[in-house]
Specification:
Elements (H helix, E strand, L loop, with lengths): L1 H17 L20 H9 L6 H39 L4 H7 L1 H9 L6 H26 L4 E5 L8 H4 L5 E3 L19 E5 L1 H6 L21 H4 L7 H10 L2 H10 L15 H10 L7 H14 L11 E5 L6 E4 L4 E5 L10 H14 L5 H15 L11 H27 L8 H7 L4 H13 L4 H12 L6 H13 L3 H9 L5 H19 L1
Parallel strand pairs: 4-6
Antiparallel strand pairs: 1-2, 1-3, 5-6
Helix pairs in contact: 1-3, 1-6, 3-5, 4-5, 12-13, 14-15, 15-16, 16-18, 16-19, 18-22, 20-21, 21-22
Amino acid sequence: MEAVRNVLVVSFLMGMDHAESKIEFGDDVLDVIPEPLSFEEAEKLFLMRIPMTKEEWEELEAKLRFRAFTVARLTELDAINAIREKLIKVLQEGKTLRQFWEEGGKDELLKRAGFHRSNPWYWETVFRTNIQTAYNAGRAYQFRKAKPAYLEFVGITDARQTKICRARSGVIRPADDPWWSSNWPPLHFNCRSTVRAVHREEFETLGLSITRNLPSEPPAKGFGVHPLESGSYWKLTPQMIERAKKYGIYEEIVKTAKELGLEVKEIQAGKGLTREAKKGIALIDKYNYDTFEEVGGFTKEFVRSNRELFPYRELKELRAQYDDKYFMACYSLDGRISVSTYEFKHLGYNPARDLRSALQKLKANQPLTFNEEYALESLWHELNHLRPKGVVLFDKKEVIVMEMINQFYSRHTFDKLFVKRIKPDAKLQFKKKILEEGYGYNSLVQNFRYLLKRIGVKEKEAVKELEKILLDDYNILYERVVAWIAEKAKLSESQVKRILDNIERTFEKFKTELEGVLAEAKRNRV
């Protein structure tokens, strides 16, 4: 732990020291880990060039010591947990521990778990990210003390540079521009980028200009937040807190914080999260999901607490019901959703069971299976039936188009509008697969996606524009979808209706009909 603390202190001070120079962070910081660094020693190394009072030093050192403690402790327990999982797998393979030990021993076990010194992940991913965070926090600290006119994002242009950093390299913005609040390096694991000061004289002399076209791709999840605004260079993230509680060391961490003179309230989960995120975390943690009644209680409360999504009606009942004809069904006028308890053996899917286990795993921050993620998407699809201003009964072709649009929309939005509202740091793995292979109405969705591709409409654009139609009034949804497709494809509404009349058919038959209509329209235009 002491070595980690020392390298974080050095990295932070190097960041301050380099802030006013052309020097950038190099790999050699890993080779300059000193013995425990006192104020006097830090003064000799850095503080002659970066004035800091002893009081400032002590406050900084305590925060970095706390960060070092949590990083080292959690990494140690991550290793133990990974090794435990590998040993369980060895036993499941039918080997004895003696056999495994004789074949590979401790080194092989550590390698398999990803924590061996020969494995770059051990050092690069865990510690370099923390080192780079401390270094860039030091630069931010110095820029606050001596504010430049502008800042420039500096990336290392080589084969290792990511698209995220390449898109930002050379971006110049005013030092107080809000853009820096969400684009401060590191922007991802193993990020080597930094930020430099650009003073007004340099800006004017060299004829530099402010970057107007900013990259649209965001930093990796959990990265890019300005360290001084969020305190992220020393505070615990929600993920770290969850791991600490999982390993049973949260109280130990709280005790360490108190011993270092840090306020416990500053390291609580949810600090810096939006009101919606805090609300979602509180809701998912409220239930254990041991029974389906708890799933119903959670879902009803989700609807009540997100009135901006559900302005017209409430969910009165979510119930489990044996039925082999559907996965889930919404009765909008009654405010009721039924979830099947039937085991669809060809899919290995039991909607009620998989929905309950999905919520349990979300709460415990555990990875979900495809069927569990799909159960969440399927519930979101049914919840979307509660959202429109008008819901009525209509004829079959209108129902088909409504379900197609809802399913397409739900597969694209279940992660952000549903899952991320209840678990902001949830790690979903199967969104793309659900979009392509989800069970319900899948032929409709895939035919519609092909239609969009052929008429040159991007799916993100379609989601945004069709949302307004879907959530308005089912009474007029069919006609509005027809008009929307006609406008995008430059077809007549009668031609669009011919296409939609075939949307339920197999892909090959639908494709043949669609291509025939498009060819006819092209001939007519000529």
